[in-house]
Amino acid sequence: MFYPFEMERYLETLLGERDPLLQEMEEQALKETIPVVTPTVGNFLNLLVHMNRAQSILEIGTAIGYSTIWLARAAERTGGYVTTIDLNKDRLRRSLVYFERAGLRERITAIEGDARKILPTLDSKFDFVFIDAAKGEYLDYLSHIYPLISSGGLLVVDNVLFRGWVVPGSDFAPKYERMVGGLRQFLQELCQNPEFSTTVLPFGDGVSVSRRIS
């Protein structure tokens, strides 16, 4: 997070009290350093699904299913469904337990595997796509994702500013050079695509929102 931690905590207080299941998942993710979205980003995803009345939702990067539940709860209201993909077999298995406890198991299809291999096999159109997976793979996803997004559909991507290091002139360890460079290239390609209208929001770890306009 590249802006004051106190600001993120304040934004969380504005959400009100979250239910025990989400709080449990937040605590477990923190304890095991499992990357999940912040509550403010989760709430934002939920809001966007409602606003776009999304029926078909695709998520790349399930982890233990925290963001998936935010998406699926909105899908309950829109009559939609969520398809989520993750390579980590153990985390995906754990997510299924959380989906069951949330009463959302029938609303979610979980696919185990490498999204770069799975995406080309999908023949459905999606109203809403959310990416929160390995940052070094973001650029690889784009060419596969573009054909899957329906007209007027949304593409939302988390961690696009990656601790603020994507901003030119930032200082970071050399081991992150390739990842940061890939994210910069990802944002350039996404923002310059004439078929999408894109904005980047500086909360959480940076969230891009793109709407297909053609």
Describe the largest sheet.
7 strands, mixed
The CATH C-level name is Alpha Beta
Number of helices: 8
Strand order of the largest sheet: 3-2-1-4-5-7-6
The CATH topology assignment is Rossmann fold
Class by alpha and beta content: alpha/beta
The CATH architecture can be named as 3-Layer(aba) Sandwich
Strand coverage percent? 15-25%
Q: What's the rounded overall pLDDT mean?
A: 94
Number of strand segments = 7
CATH superfamily: Vaccinia Virus protein VP39
**Unreliable stretches:** none
Separation of the first and last Cα atoms: 34 Å
Kindly give the count of domains.
1
Tertiary shape: globular
As a whole number of angstroms, the C-alpha radius of gyration is 16 Å
Amount of helix: 40-55%
- Which series of helices and strands comes N to C? HHHEHEHEHEHEHEE
Word description of this protein:
With 214 residues, this protein is of the alpha/beta class. The chain is built from 8 helices and 7 strands. It is 42% helix and 21% strand. A 7-stranded mixed sheet has the order 3-2-1-4-5-7-6, sandwiched between helices. It has one domain: Vaccinia Virus protein VP39 (Rossmann fold). The protein has helices spanning 5-13, 20-32, 39-52, 66-78, 89-101, 115-118, 138-145, 177-192; strands at 56-60, 81-86, 108-112, 126-131, 149-158, 196-201, 207-212.
How are the elements arranged and paired?
Layout: H1 5-13, H2 20-32, H3 39-52, E1 56-60, H4 66-78, E2 81-86, H5 89-101, E3 108-112, H6 115-118, E4 126-131, H7 138-145, E5 149-158, H8 177-192, E6 196-201, E7 207-212
Parallel strand pairs: 1-2, 1-4, 2-3, 4-5
Antiparallel strand pairs: 5-7, 6-7
Helix pairs in contact: 3-4
